[in-house]
Amino acid sequence: VIGSKRSEGMKIKLIILLLSVVPVLGQGEGFGIGLVLKDGLGLTAKYWLNEKTAAVGVITPKGIQADYHIHNYDKIRPELGRNPVYYGLGINIGSKQEGNETETSIGIRVPLGILSYYHKNNYDLDFYIDLVPTLDITPDTHFWVDGTVGFRYYF
């Protein structure tokens, strides 16, 4: 519902995600945006800093994440495309509604995943799946494991 607290929260999360990506947009090629399935449907953005490292942002109905990924191309070598495994470190800012109160959590993430990257006829796509152990540090210490699946189109 437009104007609800939930849609206002999504607007704020989208603004934060966009602001985190804007500084790197002018640095060259390698920017992708797409959809992610995590706590419902969300947005994902990735900017390749070089061939092996990237900055990643995700926004979902329940939170935002910002990660730094390191990619290893030596583990899987397909005939078509590239399939690096990746690992990294990031931050999770989540929120959940309990009655009239919203509780915000902040945690440290360690994303572990695999990415399939395809280039054909000037279209660049990646598809990925990952598992993300997370340690919330506020408001309570809590360990949990999350997972996502998604894709991005590169400009």
What tags apply to this protein structure?
1 helix, mainly beta, 155 residues, 14% helix, globular
What is the secondary structure topology, with strand pairs?
Blueprint: H1 5-25, E1 31-37, E2 41-48, E3 53-60, E4 63-72, E5 85-98, E6 101-109, E7 112-120, E8 123-138, E9 142-154
Antiparallel strand pairs: 1-2, 1-9, 2-3, 3-4, 4-5, 5-6, 5-7, 6-8, 7-8, 8-9
Range of strand content: over 45%
Order of helices and strands: HEEEEEEEEE
Anisotropy-based shape? globular
Low-confidence residue ranges: 19-28
Query: What would you report as the Rg, rounded to the nearest angstrom?
Result: 16 Å
Which range best describes the helical content: under 10%, 10-25%, 25-40%, 40-55%, 55-70% or over 70%? Answer: 10-25%
What structural category do the secondary elements indicate?
A: mainly beta
* End-to-end CA span: 32 Å
On the 0 to 100 scale, the average pLDDT is 83
Number of strands: 9
Short description:
The chain has one helix spanning 5-25; strands at 31-37, 41-48, 53-60, 63-72, 85-98, 101-109, 112-120, 123-138, 142-154. The chain has 155 residues and is mainly β.
What does this structure look like?
- The chain has 1 helix and 9 strands, in the order H-E-E-E-E-E-E-E-E-E.
- It has 155 residues and is mainly beta.
- Strand 5 and strand 6 (101-109) form a beta hairpin.
- The protein has one helix spanning 5-25, and strands at 31-37, 41-48, 53-60, 63-72, 85-98, 101-109, 112-120, 123-138, 142-154.
- The protein starts with a helix and ends with a strand.
- Helix content is 14%, strand content 61%.
- The radius of gyration is 16 Å and the shape is globular.
- Strands 1, 2, 3, 4, 5, 6, 7, 8 and 9 form a 9-stranded antiparallel β-sheet that branches.
